[in-house]
Specification:
Layout lengths: L13 E10 L5 E7 L6 E10 L7 E8 L13 E2 L15 E10 L6 E8 L5 E11 L1
Antiparallel strand pairs: 1-8, 2-7, 3-6, 3-8, 4-5, 4-7
Length: 137
């Protein structure tokens, strides 16, 4: 009788990044929230955005990955968009719901910052609540 096969299982650490804040009254008001620097090789596996009941589909949330911690109070910073390769639009929007996306984005070695950028089209301030899941590569 032969020995059973052996598997080399290496558990990878997983992290949940919480990005939250308040974007001012729009239209055109923006807010960039930054997490990082992340100093180890990683992959972005998913994200979740909570939209309040009163956003009227006017709050756009961009998920970005960057080499720097640059922020913007208007249009999104010129960083790599995490959603671009996976969905038809470059942002998420909604009203009274939670949007979840599964991603498989391999970060480049110098992409140490994860950002959520909210662009508010509402006439009043909005809460931004985003979580991003990463794991060691």
């Amino acid at each position: 009788m032969s020995d059973p096969p052996r598997f080399n299982l290496t558990l990878k650490r997983r992290y949940t990044l919480v990005l939250s804040g308040t974007v001012g009254a729009g239209p055109g008001a923006g807010l960039t929230i930054v997490a990082g620097p992340i100093t180890f090789p990683y992959r972005v596996t998913g994200a979740e955005v909570v939209f309040r009941d009163d956003t009227a589909n006017l709050l756009q949330v961009y998920l970005l990955i960057a080499r720097n911690a640059t922020t913007s109070n208007g249009a999104p910073p010129a960083d790599s968009n995490l959603l671009g390769p996976f969905i038809a639009t470059s942002f998420l929007l909604g009203e009274g719901l939670v949007k979840r996306v599964s991603l498989g984005y391999e970060a480049e070695s110098d992409q140490q910052y994860i950002k959520a950028h909210a662009l508010n089209g509402c006439a009043y301030a909005q809460t931004v609540n985003v979580t991003v899941e990463i794991e060691e590569a």
